[in-house]
Specification:
This protein is mainly beta. The chain has helices spanning 2-20, 200-210, and strands spanning 23-33, 39-40, 45-51, 54-59, 81-84, 89-96, 99-108, 116-124, 127-136, 139-146, 164-170, 175-183, 197-199.
């Protein structure tokens, strides 16, 4: 009997560890790299929260961004991204302050990114990461992902690798975003449902037709 309870305790501990490892909060810092010797630190900091099958990318609160309300996904956070790996669902909250006609949840198709995984490796925050090269929105992306962390996750729309992306470099604008801290815990995350949904395709059609990034929605724009 004593052996049985010892075995049961061991199993419960392992389940607890597995559950804990499905939650992460990763802090990133962005740098502008002009050359090998010139680096500008004027970029922004952002956070990737991962909870089981969902993630949320958002920026630190400052005087321009209202305080974050939890669970993530229950309120509007500017320039944030929700991702559900099981549903292959990406949602970007959109809108302008005090203009309710601009508010919507932009729904994207899962990025059709063909990653090429290389043999190159480097250590980021004590994790041995693997280099991958791909394209997202027709732009070349260089990513470094950690196989130790949950597969498929990354900041914003950079997803789909067999691990969590800890660094992204975009050669077209020389921006590098790198993880600077990892906590093995995460706030709760829910699928955003506080506004009506619009496809990203509809957003770009309306934006391109007016040349104005501020889009005002009509009833026919919304997804039922």
């Amino acid at each position: 009997m004593k052996l049985f309870f010892s075995f049961l305790f061991f199993i419960l501990v392992q389940i607890s560890i597995i559950h804990a490892q499905s939650s992460f909060t990763i802090h990133f810092r962005t740098l502008f790299i002009k050359s090998d010797t010139e680096i500008y630190k004027g970029g922004v900091d952002l956070i990737l929260a991962i909870k089981d099958s969902q993630s949320y990318t958002y920026y630190h609160s400052n005087k321009y961004i209202p305080p974050i309300k939890f669970p993530l996904g229950t309120s509007f956070i500017p320039k944030s991204t929700y991702f559900n790996i099981n549903k292959k669902l990406i949602i970007d909250p959109y809108g302008y302050p005090k203009e309710p006609q601009t508010e919507a949840l932009l729904v994207s198709e899962f990025p059709d990114c063909q990653w090429k995984i290389t043999n190159e490796k480097k250590v980021i925050l004590e994790d041995t990461c693997i280099k991958a090269i791909g394209k997202v929105w027709d732009k070349e992306i260089i990513a470094w992902y950690s196989p130790r962390l949950p597969a498929g996750f990354g900041i914003h729309h950079y997803v789909g690798l067999p691990g969590t992306i800890l660094e992204i470099y975009t050669p077209h604008n020389k921006i590098q975003t790198t993880a600077i801290n990892i906590d093995e815990t995460s706030p709760e995350i829910v699928e955003p449902n506080f506004s009506k949904r619009v496809s990203v395709k509809t957003y770009w059609q309306k934006r391109n037709s007016t040349g104005d990034p501020r889009v005002y929605w009509e009833k026919m724009d919304f997804i039922e």
